[in-house]
Amino acid sequence: MSNINWNQKENEMLSLIEEIVNIESGTFLKSGVDRVGTTLANLYKNIGFQVESDIQEERGNNLVITHPEANQPEILIIAHMDTVFPEGTVAERPFTRDEKNAYGPGVFDMKASQITTLYAIKHLIETGSHSYKNVKVILNSDEEVGSVHSRPLIEKHASLSKYALIVEPSDEDGTLVTGRRGGGKYYLTVSGIAAHSGAEPEKGRSAIGELAHKIIKLHALTNAEAGIHVNVGVIGGGTSSNTIAPHAFANIDVRMETPEQADELDRSIRDICSRVDIEGTSLELRGGITRPPMIKNELTEELLNIIREEAKYLGEELSDKKVGSGSDGNITSSVGIATIDALGPRGGHAHSKDEYLVIESLVPRVKLLANVIDRLSSHK
């Protein structure tokens, strides 16, 4: 291992990160997400892995990657290819770097993690370990909107696995994530009756008025002390200021701490949206709980201890925490397998124009992931 040129590896990784950062891949741009998928698929094929496409009509295709000699792999690694950024962002601010950091849409969340995962597997191959045959990698295409389309695929493969290593990026100090709040997305559409607001307002039924009633009731479900939050984050509707609004809509985000809260919150939202306050309007509710809470348990603790031991061997002390945001770790944890998240490189300001990747964290996270895979596979 001593003859590995890690400076060269870091430069190679940065070149690949630049390549995929400069591919526009917002969740709703299927062609762009599929371009990232094709690029990554070819990189895995180049090191002898096989790639199976889970074809999607509305989103990018999900990829399932294993070695041809894999026999019931126990380790599931998950990384997402989509970003939150609208089309045109790459043209405005493509990949750049300085001595310390790299910048660009999705560089931190989580295109760098795609490349560190690839290089961890390459490292195992190059050092003679066969533990890469104990790995299955899922690259999914809609994590940023709740993994709605990829969730069945993740659940299927998680149920066949023993460990889930989620390579979401880590914060500046490298802290791992062992717990996440659950979350859900709901989409409420309101239909009313249009009428002139001056000439014959009595003939109209305001969809916006009905929506206003629902927003108040939905926000009243929030219980901050219990960790329950309901946020109507996007609304719209109407046609003109002098027309009774014939339509309106709201996009609703929910967060919770426990599976029991998720069930109760879902029931409450559906009950609120099951009947109208303004006669003559109508409601349609779509969506639901997309991510069950990720709960730290005994299996998580055991896996965490192994990862911390491997990190210590590499000269790094790692801590863990619970965070409010969700990831695919919520899904794997709910299936019942040991799950550790935030195994990707360090950085910050995800989802913003100031997003950055700490370059010096690339190699350490390659080494850690490779060592963890090898350690977890030692009995096979």
Automatic annotation (TrEMBL):
<keyword id="KW-0378">Hydrolase</keyword>
<keyword id="KW-0479">Metal-binding</keyword>
<dbReference type="InterPro" id="IPR050072">
    <property type="entry name" value="Peptidase_M20A"/>
</dbReference>
<dbReference type="InterPro" id="IPR036264">
    <property type="entry name" value="Bact_exopeptidase_dim_dom"/>
</dbReference>
<protein>
    <submittedName>
        <fullName>M20 family metallopeptidase</fullName>
    </submittedName>
</protein>
<feature type="domain" description="Peptidase M20 dimerisation">
    <location>
        <begin position="178"/>
        <end position="278"/>
    </location>
</feature>
<dbReference type="Pfam" id="PF01546">
    <property type="entry name" value="Peptidase_M20"/>
</dbReference>
<dbReference type="InterPro" id="IPR002933">
    <property type="entry name" value="Peptidase_M20"/>
</dbReference>
<keyword id="KW-0862">Zinc</keyword>
<dbReference type="InterPro" id="IPR001261">
    <property type="entry name" value="ArgE/DapE_CS"/>
</dbReference>
<dbReference type="InterPro" id="IPR017150">
    <property type="entry name" value="Pept_M20_glutamate_carboxypep"/>
</dbReference>
<dbReference type="InterPro" id="IPR011650">
    <property type="entry name" value="Peptidase_M20_dimer"/>
</dbReference>
<dbReference type="Pfam" id="PF07687">
    <property type="entry name" value="M20_dimer"/>
</dbReference>
